[in-house]
Every structure is written in structure tokens, then in C-alpha cells.
Amino acid sequence: MPGNKKLYFKYKYKKRKSGFCMDAIYARQSVDKKDSISIDAQIEICALEAKGEYKVFADKGFSGKNFNRPAFKNMLSQIRNKNIDRIIVYRLDRLSRSIADFSSFWQEIERYGVEFLSVNEKFDTSSPIGRAMLYIIMSFAQLERETIAERIRDNYFARFKRGVWTGGPAPLGFEIIKYISDGRKVSYLKENSYIGVIKLIFSLYYKGKSLSYTAKEASLLCPEKYWDSRAVSRIIRNPIYAACNSDIYWYYAEKGVEAENNEKDFNGVNAAMLTGKEGGCMKKLSIAGHKGVIPPDIFLNCNRRLDLNSAVCANTYGKQSVLSGLLKCGKCGKSVKIIYSGKKRYMFCSKGCTVNKGFNIYDLEKEIASDSESVANYYLSSYSESIEKTEIESRISNLVKAVEEGGASVKYINERIKKLEELKHNSNESKNKFQLKIEEMPFGQKKLLLSLLIEKVVINGRNAHIFYRF
Q: What share of the chain in percent tops pLDDT 90?
């Protein structure tokens, strides 16, 4: 609760015991050298800065490259137990020689309200100058971290562009092989015994089987892996399995994926690697060093089918009602949700406004489907009439032009006009025969069509106002 959180922060920064302050002196020496200050000398100098009682933590024979030191760990444990208020060191490098490590250590002690003093650098976080120095050090730590991250990222994309495996475990159906190329050790993918599972997945989905059915069949062939629709979908989406040609190049180009290679490099033999995430950096595609195992036409067919499924799912999200996502509260304008309670369905406003519980959702769905059906059929017939009228007028215009140019006889003109009249009559009959029947549609199709027709349905008391998109 907010109140508890506020009390917690007040407690966090106050002294652990009233009127009592415990200092911790930390000393470290890697090896005894004539020109290095001893642990005893460090403790003696630091003790002069102590405000009262102090406890000594000393690590002898330990390097400052990391925090894997027994006395340091003991001191950190005392800090977490709220037994220490201030840490004193002779010099900053006695605590750590890594700016990044010191930065993480500072964040840890700051969490417990512990101050830090370095005698040699006059570095005291209880003073404004000391805190300013700390921020400078932390900015260098941030620079170090960003430099390391940039170097790792650059190395990753350099491997990606060369078509070598960028790192991590191999995808199912492959294993990693390493060898020396131009004096550098590189990794490539090689097929293993699981590649048969991959071929089965693409084959079944290509033949029209569902994702769930394909997952069940894959689990029989490869029971040691967990299979569901999402796992199958991830495999189908991965061009690491496809023999990529120019058709696949243009498929990804239409999706806004940037290719590191030219179209001619997509030779229908090698696979490709895809990097980047949705909503993050731009996705990139690069030719891989291994051969694809799935023909390009099968890969494209499966992926286009997934594209269609995704489009339908995006518009049919919400299984409680065909109106899910369309209902809005007439008082506040927020979404009205539908939930099940036993065998009944109820509506409630996401902001908490009162929604009439006597509203029959089944009747509402039926009424809106019927009204939408009439609207859709009206616009379909109007559109059909417009297209037919334009087409017939165009043909008559061509006939008139032919007469003017002397390129057609009167007999021919009369025959064509008669056929156009028959065409118009037949189209009117076919138009009357074709009518949308929304109530007879499956749930997903019905919901998709309503979402395309309707912008929102505003619930106000016992009234429902439908706002169409046109």
C-alpha cells in the first residue's frame, strides 16, 4: 500500500539505533610490497576518521579485480543487517579496482542509507563535494558499461553479416560446428537427427493441418520437447530452415525487414538469419552459411497462412462475445467488458460506472448482427449496382464511338445492346440471390465482420447506439 511504502523509506534512511553509529573500516592488500601500505597502516589512518566505535574488515592476499573476498562479503552482510552506518577506506582502489563493480556496490549501500568515505581522495558522500565526485565516478562506470555493450553488439552484427552463427543454443534440427576461418574461430549450423521433426511440421501445416494438430504430431516424434501452437509457429516463422530465394527476399522486404544482402544473394540454396524484435530495433535479414532444408514455396505458403491467421486473431480477440472490444460506456466512454458468471454473462464498465444488469446480452448480439446484416447488404448491393452501371455505361460509350467512326453496323449495335440488357437483368437476379447471413457465420468470422463494420456500440441504460465505420 502507498502508506506502507512511505513508512518504509522513512525507516530505511534513519539510524538503526538511537544515538548509536557504527563505522566499518575496510582494508585490503594483495601482496606485501615495500612500496605498498600495509593493512595495519590502513586501519590506523582510517581509525582517525571514525566518529565512534568501529569494526575492522580486512582481506589480505586478495585482488581488487572483483568482490570475491571473505571479509568484504562479511561487511556486505552486516550492511544488509543494518548494523553499519558508514564505510571508511584508505583509498578507493582498496575497495575495488573496477569502476563498474564500485558502481553496483554504491547502489547497494545507498539502498541501506550507508555513507562512504575514502581518506586519501577526500571522498565523503556525507558532503556535497563527495557526492559530486561519486556522480562523476558513476558516469565513468556508465560509460564503461555502454562501451562494453556497444562492443558486444558490434561483434554480434559483424558475425550476423558474415552469415556465421551469432551465439546461443542452436535451433531445433541443427547443431553448432566450429572451425578456423581467416585465423578466427567461427560457428556454423549443421543438420542433426531432429531435422526430420522440422520437415514434418512444415509438411503438415503446408497441407492445411492446424497448428494444434501439427504440435500433437510433433510431440509424438519428439516427446522430449514441449509442443504447442506457439512453438510450432516460431519454427514456421524462422527463415533459418528455408532455402531462401528472391521471393523470400521480397516477402520480408514488404514487411519492412532490412536485408544485409542483395536480392541476387538469395540463391534458393542457403538459409537466412533474422534478428531484431517487434517494437524494438528494425528487423534485419542476412544470408546464413548453411543450406536451407525447406523449399521456398512451402516456407512462403506456411508463413502467408500464419499472416492470415494473425490478422483474424487480432480482430477476434475476446471469446466472451462477438461484441468484445466494441462496447463502450455511455457515461464515461471507457470500455464495457463482458464476463461469465456461471452460465450467465454480465457487462461492467472498466471505470466502474453502473451498467444495467437487466440488459440481455444475447438479444443485444442478435439485434446488432441483424442490423449490421442489413447495412452490409445495402452497401454491397449499392456498390454492385455502381460497378455494373459504370461497366454498362462504358460499353455503351464504346458502341457509340464505334458508330461515329463507322466501325460497326446497326445490326451489330442492336445485338450488343440486347446482350447488355440481358447482362443487367442477370446481374440483378444474382445480386438478389447473394445476401450476407451474419447469424449463420462461425464465431470468428462473425466477430471479424462486425469489427470491420462497426466502430463502437455505446451502452446507455437500456439503449445501445451503433456507430458504423461508414
A: 20
Q: Look at residues 291, 315, 339 and tell me which one is the last residue of a structural domain.
A: 315
Cα angle, residue 31 at apex, residues 29 and 35 outer, rounded to 5°: 85
Taking a C-beta distance cutoff of 8 angstroms, is the pair 312, 446 a contact?
no
Ordered alpha helix ranges (H), 260-353: 296-315
- Same domain for 346 and 443, yes or no, is yes
pLDDT higher than threshold 60 for residue 316:
no
* CA gap 191, 389 in Å, rounded: 60
Count of C-beta atoms within a 10 Å radius of residue 267: 12
Q: Output the pLDDT for position 205.
A: 92
- Residues 331 and 85: their CA atoms lie apart, in Å, by 55
Q: Is residue 229 located within the same domain as residue 138? A: no
Kindly state whether residues 350 and 452 are assigned to the same domain: yes
Residue 214 pLDDT exceeds 90: yes
What does the pLDDT look like over 441-470, one tens digit per residue?
777 777 777 877 788 888 877 778 888 876
Q: Is residue 215 part of a domain?
A: yes
Q: Which domain holds residue 181?
A: 174-315
DSSP assignment of 22-48 equals -EEEEEEESS--TTS--HHHHHHHHHT
Mark whether 277 and 404 lie in a shared domain.
no
Tell me which of 315, 339, 365 is where a domain ends.
315
**pTM strictly above 0.70:** no
Residue 10: inside a domain? yes
- Dist CA 163 CA 289 (whole Å): 5
Q: Is residue 364 part of a domain?
A: yes
Query: How far is 417 from 411, CA to CA, in rounded Å?
Result: 10
pLDDT confidence of 391, banded at 50, 70, 90? low
- How many whole angstroms separate alpha carbon 255 and alpha carbon 252? 5
CB-count burial class (<10 Å; 0-12, 13-18, 19+) for 437: exposed
Q: Which residue has the higher pLDDT, 392 or 107?
A: 107
Instruction: Give 340's contacts (C-beta < 8 A, 6+ positions apart).
Output: 320
Average pLDDT along the chain: 76
Split into its structural domains, the chain has a count of 3
Rounded CA-CA distance 85/22 in Å is 6
In a domain, 95, yes or no: yes
